[in-house]
Amino acid sequence: MAEDRKFEFRDGKFYNRVSGEAIPDNEPVIIFRARDKHALPILLYYRSLISDPHHYQAVTDRINDFEEFARHNDRREPGTTHHIVLNSERD
After folding, report:
1. Measured between alpha carbons, how far is 21 from 19 in angstroms, rounded to an integer?
2. What distances in angstroms separate CA 49 from CA 17, 42, 43, 74, 84, one per listed residue?
């Protein structure tokens, strides 16, 4: 798997590669896969909101990775695994 350049997964948690800080267990995280046909448009929109030049370039690099993947692979409509309990189903 092409890992994220900012975070790494080890010991069952995501860690910032620079600070070494773990993402807290109570902080929601979302992962977009390159095969998700909606991921690239979301990343392009996200980049349009960025003002920090370094972060802008980091996101651009990831966009380039997603575009390269799209050139060589089919992308598809994502779905949620049906065995996952949704928040709305907990009530």
Report:
1. 5
2. 24, 11, 10, 28, 31
* pLDDT tens-digit map of 35-68: 999 999 999 999 999 999 999 999 999 999 999 9
β-strands 7-10, 13-16: how paired? antiparallel
Has residue 1 got a pLDDT over 60? Answer: no
Select from 48, 12, 52, 53 the least CA-distant residue to 29.
12
Q: Where are the domains of the chain?
A: 1-27, 32-77
Token pair listed for 64: 């380039």
